[in-house]
Design brief:
With about 160 residues, this protein is mainly alpha-helical. Helices cover about 60% and strands about 10% of the residues. It has 8 helices and 3 strands, in the order αααβααββααα. The chain has a 3-stranded antiparallel sheet with strand order 1-3-2. α2 packs across α6.
């Protein structure tokens, strides 16, 4: 019987950027989840994204918030309900379209966002601890370029079928 070792990666994968990016993204996700779990007082990364969008872009419809943050509309609705219950956001009926809500951040929401900024800063620090400040700046530039919407999309990307 062959020996199994957790975390063992085939040689043909271990140096491929797609594999490395996936592993780094998985580590970042774990750090985000555990950081918000420990210090978010029940709020998660998607709450942070919604508060940040409202703070930066101003009041918006729930549908626009979903598009701006990449969060599914039904998840936006649930998250906004949680935040409204905490007094972090308010929803008002759009006078131009009574079927639509316009969401605004409250002063309590702005204060909570500032606290969550510190939580996120701590998570970034843990994630990037192995890098020097110059490497961090270079990494941010590289990741921004790789994540640019101007990059071509391969047909295989649309099917979601890459191995590494």
């Amino acid at each position: 019987m062959r020996e199994t070792r957790p975390g063992r990666t085939p040689d043909r994968l271990k140096d491929r950027p797609t594999w490395l990016l996936g592993r780094a993204a998985a580590r970042a996700s774990v750090l985000l989840a555990s950081g918000f779990e420990a210090h978010g007082d029940g709020l998660r990364g998607y709450h942070y994204r919604l508060l940040a969008a409202l703070d930066e872009f101003g009041p918006a419809s729930q549908a626009d918030l979903g598009r701006d943050t990449g969060i599914d509309r039904s998840d936006v609705t649930a998250a906004l309900t949680q935040m409204a219950d905490r007094g972090l956001v308010v929803r008002d009926v759009d006078p131009g379209n009574r079927r639509r809500n316009i969401v605004s951040i409250t002063s309590a929401g702005v204060a909570r966002l500032r606290e969550l900024d510190e939580v996120l800063d701590g998570i970034q620090e843990v994630l990037l601890a192995p890098l020097s400040s110059a490497q961090r700046a270079q990494f941010a530039k590289i990741m921004t370029r790789l994540g640019s919407v101007d990059q071509p999309v391969l047909e295989s990307d649309q099917r979601g079928g890459e191995a590494g």
